């Protein structure tokens, strides 16, 4: 059991709620959720192959945690890779990140899969397309289960906004632009109606960096950011709309 996973088990009432969520997922899949600390954590099974995939490692280096849901013998094998170097030091914030990754596995356990992660230089785009749709659904489910995420997330976004002020106004490379679009939709759909200074300021800053992404984020958040019914038809439609928006922002064919 990793140190981070041990913290999750000790996180009071909400830790118990998250643990119950984990147990539901494992019962549905018929196997464990594997939590791997990076760097240095031991990886068993097919997940080990991804640590030799340069595109995956690049994405993991820039993330706090990433989820993989692989298959072996017809059974799903979910992994949560936790980047120790990027995790917050606050226990509740670190635990919430692991809980959020459980949400991705919860969706996949019900056959709501993100786009397949590829091998090319733009493989990061698939991660962000899936995140834009799945983050909304995960937060909605956290609300339903009484797992608090808003205060911690707002505090992290405010810190990121303050740290970003005075930085580069350039749009950036493909991965940065894809990540920025995902962040813009998170801010608009997850904090709809927010009037705090940090929220307005962060959206203004991001919009100045990439006006095309801002326009697409507004469209996406307005189109399906509400309480839409989770069905395969609606889910696939949302992924298609995000893929189209991402392609417009990045000028991808």
Q: Can you summarize this structure?
A:
By secondary structure, the chain is mainly alpha-helical. The protein is built from 10 helices and 3 strands; from the N terminus they run H-H-E-H-E-E-H-H-H-H-H-H-H. It has helices at 3-9, 12-29, 54-61, 91-109, 124-145, 150-164, 174-190, 197-209, 211-224, 232-250, and strands at 34-38, 65-72, 75-83.
Task: Summarize the structure in words.
With 253 residues, the chain is mainly α. Helix content is 60%, strand content 9%. It contains ten helices and three strands; from the N terminus they run H-H-E-H-E-E-H-H-H-H-H-H-H. It has helices at 3-9, 12-29, 54-61, 91-109, 124-145, 150-164, 174-190, 197-209, 211-224, 232-250, and strands at 34-38, 65-72, 75-83. It has a three-stranded mixed β-sheet with strand order 1-3-2, with helices on both faces. Strand 2 (65-72) and strand 3 (75-83) form a beta hairpin. Helix 2 runs parallel beside helix 4 (91-109) and helix 7 runs parallel beside helix 9. The chain is globular, with a radius of gyration of 18 Å. The protein starts with a helix and ends with a helix. Residues 1-13 have low confidence and may be disordered.
Helices and strands: which structural class? Answer: mainly alpha
Approximately what portion of the residues adopt beta-strand conformation?
5-15%
Tell me the overall shape. globular
How far is it from the N-terminal to the C-terminal residue, by CA?
44 Å
Number of helices: 10
Give the uncertain stretches in residue-range form.
1-13
Strand order of the largest sheet: 1-3-2
- Write down the secondary-structure element order: HHEHEEHHHHHHH
Rg to the nearest angstrom? Answer: 18 Å
Give a count of the beta strands, DSSP E runs of length 2 or more. 3
């Amino acid at each position: 059991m990793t140190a981070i996973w041990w913290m999750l088990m000790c996180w009071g009432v909400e830790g118990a709620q998250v643990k119950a969520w984990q147990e539901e997922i494992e019962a549905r899949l018929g196997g464990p959720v594997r939590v791997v600390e990076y760097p240095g954590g031991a990886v068993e099974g097919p997940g080990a192959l991804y640590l030799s995939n340069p595109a995956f490692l690049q994405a993991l280096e820039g993330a706090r945690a990433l989820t993989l849901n692989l298959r072996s013998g017809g059974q799903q094998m979910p992994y949560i890779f936790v980047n120790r170097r990027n995790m917050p030091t606050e226990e509740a914030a670190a635990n919430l990140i692991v809980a959020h990754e459980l949400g991705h596995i919860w969706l996949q356990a019900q056959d709501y899969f993100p786009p397949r992660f590829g091998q090319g230089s733009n493989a990061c785009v698939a991660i962000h397309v899936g995140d834009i749709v799945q983050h909304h659904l995960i937060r909605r489910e956290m609300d339903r289960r009484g797992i608090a995420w808003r205060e911690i997330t707002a505090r992290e976004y405010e810190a990121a906004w303050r740290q970003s002020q005075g930085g580069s106004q350039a749009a950036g490379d493909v991965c940065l632009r894809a990540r920025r679009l995902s962040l813009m939709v998170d801010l608009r759909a997850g904090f709809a109606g927010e009037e705090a200074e940090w929220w307005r300021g962060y959206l203004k800053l991001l919009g100045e960096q990439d006006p095309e992404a801002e326009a697409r984020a507004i469209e996406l958040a307005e189109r399906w950011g509400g309480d839409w019914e989770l069905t395969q038809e609606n889910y696939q439609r949302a992924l298609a709309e995000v893929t189209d928006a991402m392609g417009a922002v990045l000028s991808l064919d």
